[in-house]
Amino acid sequence: MAVSVQLQNLVKHFGTIRAVDHITLTIEPGELFFLLGPSGCGKTTLLRSIAGFNEPDSGTILIGERDVTRLPPHQRDTGMVFQSYALWPHMSVAQNVAFGLEMRKISKEETRERVKEALAMVRMTDWAGQKPNQLSGGQQQRVALARALVIHPQCLLLDEPLSNLDAKLRLEMRTEIRRICKESGLTAIYVTHDQKEALSVADRLAVLNGGVVEQCGAPREVYRRPVSMFAASFIGETNFIAGTFEGGEGGRVSIRTDLGTFVSTAPSGEFKVGQAVTVSLRPETLRLDDAPSDAPNQLEGFVHDSVYLGEVAQHQVRVGTEQPLNLKVFDLNPRIIARDGEESARIWVDPADVVVLPQEVSAGDDS
Ligand code: ATP
């Protein structure tokens, strides 16, 4: 039966670096949960703490009802999949998968059955007798998954499992990993810095920044309703415009900016009138089609530097006169392409897509 994983107030230092800074999270039974964030944000340290390879300075880790904080890795009932696969080159696929069971002194007959079941789960039955160097990267990763699944762990831990694969295989394995996790019903925690991987596969995800959880939620919620400039720019692309909160009523608020006033029905929290805020506009929410005549949030601008990608064009649109600003606009089924020159255009954005965030002094851009 699937179990929850609870992290309570977890702290881990390396010397003076606080890699994990009072993290509290509950991963629900059977959930496929992602830890996402830039290099150095603490996601691997957190995963390794759950696996038992790092001992936290303080805090508690519960797997189901069991406090595993001070238990060695082999007593935690977790299966780990590493970025490097870590397969034994001299052993066959079946022997690699069987290894963990032999260490646990499982009978030969049961081992044979469980290896068969695990290889079927990852669709590698026909490769049981091959050596790892006869397999593609994707196939090796499947074997690594089978090896983690065969011990019937309570929780599967995946550390950047796709980062050694080429782009096409990564896409294929994303879907496969989700299928395997869901079919096995396991609680799984998956570390990546690839936001597309997280958005496409996760049930829920936590965005980490400097050892703290910046935001936690379902992919759509975090993408559409980021709570900070960091979360908005780390997941997906966005345009930031500095402004002043002017208040409003009935769920509609106004933000004054150098580009004019934006109306929003999507503020990320409570703001005071006069407070400095940032408007976040995703490039695909900025539209070049005709706005309804009474629509707010319309801007005159010039489209330039279009990148035509077939189904979509990525434009720069220069807006504003005093201090012009370039906004990224993604236009599905594009009609305008301005590659060498520029074209005047009107862009608009639905108030439901105007996200208002607290202003941060040193937020990076969305690259
Ligand atoms: P990456 O995506 O690059 O693996 P990450 O988000 O997984 O990054 P961690 O590996 O958890 O980040 O590292 C978090 C912080 O702790 C970093 O500043 C890192 O330098 C530091 N750190 C991690 N492991 C050790 C260690 N064994 N000794 C010293 N410092 C460490």
Uncertain runs? 363-367
Structural class: alpha+beta
- The domain tally reads 2
Radius of gyration: 24 Å
What can be said about this structure in brief?
By secondary structure, this protein is α+β, with helices and mostly antiparallel strands.
Characteristic terms for this protein:
binds adenosine-5'-triphosphate, 20 strands, Rossmann fold, 6-stranded mixed beta sheet, alpha+beta, OB fold (Dihydrolipoamide Acetyltransferase, E2P), 367 residues, single chain, 8 helices
Describe this structure in words.
The protein is of the alpha+beta class. The protein has two domains: 5-229, Rossmann fold (3-Layer(aba) Sandwich); 237-358, OB fold (Dihydrolipoamide Acetyltransferase, E2P) (Beta Barrel). It contains eight helices and 20 strands. The strands form four sheets. Strands 6-7-8-3-9-10 form a six-stranded mixed beta sheet, with helices on both faces. A six-stranded mixed beta sheet has the order 13-12-11-15-20-14, with no helix packed on it. The chain has a four-stranded antiparallel beta sheet with strand order 2-1-4-5, with helices on one face. Strand 16 (298-308) and strand 17 (312-319) form a beta hairpin. Helix 2 packs across helix 3, helix 2 runs parallel beside helix 4 and helix 3 packs across helix 4 (137-149). The longest helix has 18 residues, at 167-184. Mean pLDDT is 92; it is low at 363-367. Adenosine-5'-triphosphate is lined by residues 14, 17, 19, 37, 39-45, 193. Residues 14, 17, 19, 37, 39-45, 193 line the site of adenosine-5'-triphosphate (ATP).
